[in-house]
C-alpha cells in the first residue's frame, strides 16, 4: 500500500500506467469515484473478477453483473435488516467462546482469533449454527472446512493479482479446497433446511438461510450466495477488529477514552443490545478512523465497458477530463485516498478518532464529503453487510475491553509510525506480525 501511496504522491491523484503493453489507470479522486461507482455505473464492470473467482464463489452477488446481480441484490438486501440482530445474540455465543479460549493473562496474538470469531459469527448468522472454529476440540468436517476456506481464498487472492493471467494459479489443491467448502456448505444447507424449526420460531430466532431459501429454490444458487456472503463478511470484519486493537494498544490515551465511554454507557453490563451500543459516540468514531487508515479492502478496480470519461486527472494541470478506452482498468486505492492531507488535514497519517467531530477539509466540498471516505464502497454496489460488520466489531471491542481492562502493548513489541508496519494483502489487508497484546484481567 505504501508503494501505491508513493506513486500517487509523485504523479498526482489520477495516473496512467502502461505495463507490458496494457494500459491501466489509477485514481484516488472522489469526483472520479462518484462517476465510476454511481453516476456512470453502467459504463463499468468488475473486469476479470468473475473468471478469477468463479471456481470458488460460483454464481453469487460478488461475481455477478447486470440483471443477475440486480436480482441477487434484491434477493439478499431484505435479509440484512438490523432487527434480525438487534439483541446481538448472533454474536454472543461466539464471543463467549473466544473469551473462554483466551488465557487470563500473558502475551497472545489476537489476529488469528478474530478470523475464527468472525467465521463462527457469520456461519451462525447464515446457517443458524456456527462452525465453532473457536472451540479447541473441533475436528473433522468443520476443521476441514475452516482450513479449506482459507486455502481457497489464498488462491483467489493470488489469481486476483494476476488479473487476465489468473489461470496460471490453480491446480489440484485449489480445486480440492473449493470442493471441500462446497460440499460442507451443501451438507449444512441440507441439514438446516430439513431440521425442525419449531424452537427457532418459538425463540423468534432469525435464520438467514431459511429466509433466503424461501425465495431461492435452486440449491446450487443458494450455496453460491451463502459462500459469497461468508467470504464478504468474514475477513473484512476480522481485519477491522484486529487493526482496531493494533491501533488502540499503540494509542493508550484513545484506549482510555474508549474505556471511559464503555463504562459510562454500559455500566459494566454485558447483556447490552444494539440500541445500547448506539448510545456510544466515541466508539463509532474509533471504528471509522480505523477503517480510514486500514480499510479492509484497500484497493479495488473496475473495467470500462465502453470508451468513457473520468471527469478529472488529465491535462497538464491534472484537472481536465481523462479519456478511458473500452477495456481499460481503473484501480482505486481507498487506502491512499483516505490519507490525503488535502482531504483529512496535515495529520492525515495519524490515528486520531477525534477528527470526525471536527471541521475537516473533506467537508468543504459535498462530492469529497460523500466520495472521499469509502471503506464500504459506494453507489449501487455498496456493502450490504455494513451495519452487521460494524455492529459485530463494536460488540467484540466492547466485550474484550470489559474482560481485559488492563490490556496493553507487550514491552517487546515494535512501535512504528502508522502505515510503516508490515502488511499482508490477500483479498483484504491484515497485519503481517499480527496483533500481539499483553492480557491481564
Ligand atoms: C468491516 C466490515 C466490512 C467491510 C470493510 C466491507 C467492505 C465491502 C466493500 C469495499 C465492498 C465492495 C466490493 C466491490 O464491489 O468491489 C463490499 C461488498 C459486499 N459486502 Fe461488505 N464489508 C464488510 C462487512 C460485510 C459483512 C459482515 C457482510 C455480510 C455478512 C458483507 C457483505 C457484503 C456483500 C454481500 C457485498 C456485495 C455487494 C454487491 O456487490 O452488491 N460485508 N463490502
From TrEMBL:
Please indicate if the UniProt record lists ATP-binding as a keyword.
no
- Cofactor(s), by name: heme
Q: Name one Pfam family in it.
A: p450
Specify the superkingdom.
Eukaryota
Q: Which UniProt keywords apply?
A: Heme, Iron, Metal-binding, Monooxygenase, Oxidoreductase
Query: Which family, according to the similarity comment?
Result: Belongs to the cytochrome P450 family.
Q: What is the protein name stated in its UniProt record?
A: Cytochrome P450 alkane hydroxylase
Q: Whose protein is this, by species?
A: Lithohypha guttulata
Amino acid at each position: 500500500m505504501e508503494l501505491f501511496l508513493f506513486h500517487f504522491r509523485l504523479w498526482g491523484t489520477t495516473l496512467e500506467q502502461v505495463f507490458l503493453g496494457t494500459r491501466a489507470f489509477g485514481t484516488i479522486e472522489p469526483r472520479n469515484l462518484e462517476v465510476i461507482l454511481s453516476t456512470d455505473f453502467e459504463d463499468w464492470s468488475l473486469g476479470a473478477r468473475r473468471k478469477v473467482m468463479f471456481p470458488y464463489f460460483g454464481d453469487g452477488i460478488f461475481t455477478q453483473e447486470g440483471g443477475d446481480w440486480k436480482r441477487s441484490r434484491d434477493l439478499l438486501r431484505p435479509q440484512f435488516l438490523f432487527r434480525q440482530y438487534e439483541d446481538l445474540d448472533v454474536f454472543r455465543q461466539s464471543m463467549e467462546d473466544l473469551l473462554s479460549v483466551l488465557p487470563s493473562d500473558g502475551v497472545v496474538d489476537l489476529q488469528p482469533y478474530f478470523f475464527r470469531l468472525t467465521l463462527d459469527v457469520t456461519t451462525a448468522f447464515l446457517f443458524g449454527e456456527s462452525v465453532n472454529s473457536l472451540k479447541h476440540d473441533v475436528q473433522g468436517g468443520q476443521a476441514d472446512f475452516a482450513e479449506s476456506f482459507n486455502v481457497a481464498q489464498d488462491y483467489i487472492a493470488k489469481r486476483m493479482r494476476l488479473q487476465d493471467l489468473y489461470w496460471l494459479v490453480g491446480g489440484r489443491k485449489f480445486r480440492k479446497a473449493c470442493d471441500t467448502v462446497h460440499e460442507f456448505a451443501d451438507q449444512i444447507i441440507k441439514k438446516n433446511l430439513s431440521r425442525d424449526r419449531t424452537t427457532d420460531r418459538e425463540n423468534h430466532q432469525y435464520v438467514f438461510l431459511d429466509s433466503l431459501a424461501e425465495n431461492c429454490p435452486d440449491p446450487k444458487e443458494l450455496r453460491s450466495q451463502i459462500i459469497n456472503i461468508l467470504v464478504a463478511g468474514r475477513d473484512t470484519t476480522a481485519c477491522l477488529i484486529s487493526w482496531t486493537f493494533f491501533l488502540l494498544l499503540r494509542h493508550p490515551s484513545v484506549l482510555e477514552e474508549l474505556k471511559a465511554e464503555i463504562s459510562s454507557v454500559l455500566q459494566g453490563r454485558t447483556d447490552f443490545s444494539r440500541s445500547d451500543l448506539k448510545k456510544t459516540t466515541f466508539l463509532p468514531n474509533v471504528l471509522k478512523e480505523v477503517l480510514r487508515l486500514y480499510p479492509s479492502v484497500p484497493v479495488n478496480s473496475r473495467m470500462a465497458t465502453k470508451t468513457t470519461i473520468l471527469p478529472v486527472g488529465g491535462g497538464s494541470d491534472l484537472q481536465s477530463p481523462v479519456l478511458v478506452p473500452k477495456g481499460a482498468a481503473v484501480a482505486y486505492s481507498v487506502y491512499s485516498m483516505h490519507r490525503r492531507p488535502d482531504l483529512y488535514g496535515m495529520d492525515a497519517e495519524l490515528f486520531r478518532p477525534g477528527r470526525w467531530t471536527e471541521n475537516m477539509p473533506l467537508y468543504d466540498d459535498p462530492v469529497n464529503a460523500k466520495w472521499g471516505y469509502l471503506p464500504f464502497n459506494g453507489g449501487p454496489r455498496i456493502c450490504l453487510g455494513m451495519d452487521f460488520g460494524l455492529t459485530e466489531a463494536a460488540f467484540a471491542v466492547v466485550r474484550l475491553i470489559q474482560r481485559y481492562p488492563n490490556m496493553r502493548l507487550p514491552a517487546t513489541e515494535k512501535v512504528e509510525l502508522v502505515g510503516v508496519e508490515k502488511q499482508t494483502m490477500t483479498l483484504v489487508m491484515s497485519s503481517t506480525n499480527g496483533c500481539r497484546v499483553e492480557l491481564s484481567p
